[in-house]
């Protein structure tokens, strides 16, 4: 929210305070609205400060166990985390979850939400292993309350898998995502973008957990589905194809990988531009694979074209230009050492 939008609300609070008194519920509600609007308008740090100023007054007037106080504490923690302090947000949610459990019960929906927030911020604060443990407990309780096919439960399971992956347990994350992707396709639909995203995450986890053959299967099933649902030029579809080509190269299927990178480069070059970071990455990967296969002349052609495209746009000293020029110089030297007929091989 801009200062022009905030000023009238702040003036309203001043007027309300003068007419009703600073402890009137209407004034307190307006202060809460101001804090929320400030945060939603892009200033989480100020929103957190406004809630911090508001909470003592709410507790004094309404009582520490009031529903409005609990909500205010939840919002305060949210904006604290959004302002860049996830550890403090996790601590506040942990304290709030304990109070909510005491007042509402462990499996009340508001308690469950706060427990999820605690786990999420804890993971953001650099403790994914502990966050994964909390998510495992939370998902079991949430499933018991809402049912295994509830949409919120599916989201929580995805968050649990994400924390497992961050904690280095990619094999466990892959197993969870394998099951979750099937469940979400059954419950919400196979063509939902978030279902497709789960499958992409599954492929990455499979690769991280040294299951490349299964990752290839997932990619080969996912690529046509993303093209059909999202469109062949959608960023997610393009990234999936690039990841698939990279995986093929790592598995020794270089010719297939080079062909896929080549198709990608031909497709995205005219739309994104020859010097777009994604286009450059695809072309660079293709050039590197060609060189690794001993196809030095072809690799040189790729990097010469890259250099010709980016130097006029970025300048001679740009890191991309320097990298391309270094590759060109190296490949030219390789060709020189191979002899004058190397370009024709």
Automatic annotation (TrEMBL):
<dbReference type="InterPro" id="IPR053137">
    <property type="entry name" value="NLR-like"/>
</dbReference>
<protein>
    <submittedName>
        <fullName>Tetratricopeptide repeat</fullName>
    </submittedName>
</protein>
<dbReference type="Pfam" id="PF13432">
    <property type="entry name" value="TPR_16"/>
</dbReference>
<dbReference type="InterPro" id="IPR011990">
    <property type="entry name" value="TPR-like_helical_dom_sf"/>
</dbReference>
<dbReference type="Pfam" id="PF13424">
    <property type="entry name" value="TPR_12"/>
</dbReference>
């Amino acid at each position: 929210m801009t200062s022009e939008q905030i000023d009238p609300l702040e003036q309203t609070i001043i007027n309300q305070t003068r007419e009703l008194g600073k402890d009137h519920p209407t004034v307190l509600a307006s202060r809460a609205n101001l804090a929320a609007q400030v945060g939603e308008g892009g200033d989480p740090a100020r929103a957190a400060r406004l809630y911090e100023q508001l909470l003592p007054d709410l507790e004094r007037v309404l009582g520490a166990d009031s529903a409005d106080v609990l909500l205010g504490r939840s919002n305060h923690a949210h904006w604290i985390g959004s302002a860049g302090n996830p550890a403090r947000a996790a601590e506040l949610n942990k304290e709030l979850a304990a109070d909510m459990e005491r007042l509402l019960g462990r499996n009340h929906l508001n308690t469950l939400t706060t427990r999820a927030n605690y786990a999420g911020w804890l993971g953001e604060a650099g403790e994914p292993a502990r966050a994964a443990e909390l998510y495992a407990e939370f998902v079991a309780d949430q499933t018991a309350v809402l049912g295994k096919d509830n949409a919120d439960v599916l989201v929580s399971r995805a968050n649990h898998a994400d924390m497992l992956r961050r904690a280095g347990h990619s094999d466990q994350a892959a197993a969870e995502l394998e099951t979750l992707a099937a469940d979400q396709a059954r419950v919400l639909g196979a063509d939902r973008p978030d279902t497709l995203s789960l499958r992409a995450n599954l492929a990455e986890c499979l690769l991280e957990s040294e299951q490349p053959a299964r990752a290839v299967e997932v990619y080969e099933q996912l690529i046509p589905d993303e093209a059909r649902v999202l469109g062949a030029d959608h960023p997610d579809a393009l990234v999936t194809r690039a990841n698939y080509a990279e995986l093929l190269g790592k598995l020794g299927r270089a010719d297939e990988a080079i062909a896929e990178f080549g198709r990608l480069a031909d497709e995205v070059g005219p739309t994104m531009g020859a010097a777009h970071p994604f286009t450059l990455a695809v072309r660079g990967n293709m050039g590197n694979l060609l060189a690794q296969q001993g196809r030095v002349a072809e690799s040189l052609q790729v990097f010469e074209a890259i250099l010709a495209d980016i130097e006029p746009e970025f300048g001679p000293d740009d890191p991309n230009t320097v990298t391309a020029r270094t590759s060109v110089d190296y490949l030219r030297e390789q060709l020189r050492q191979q002899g004058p007929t190397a370009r024709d091989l």
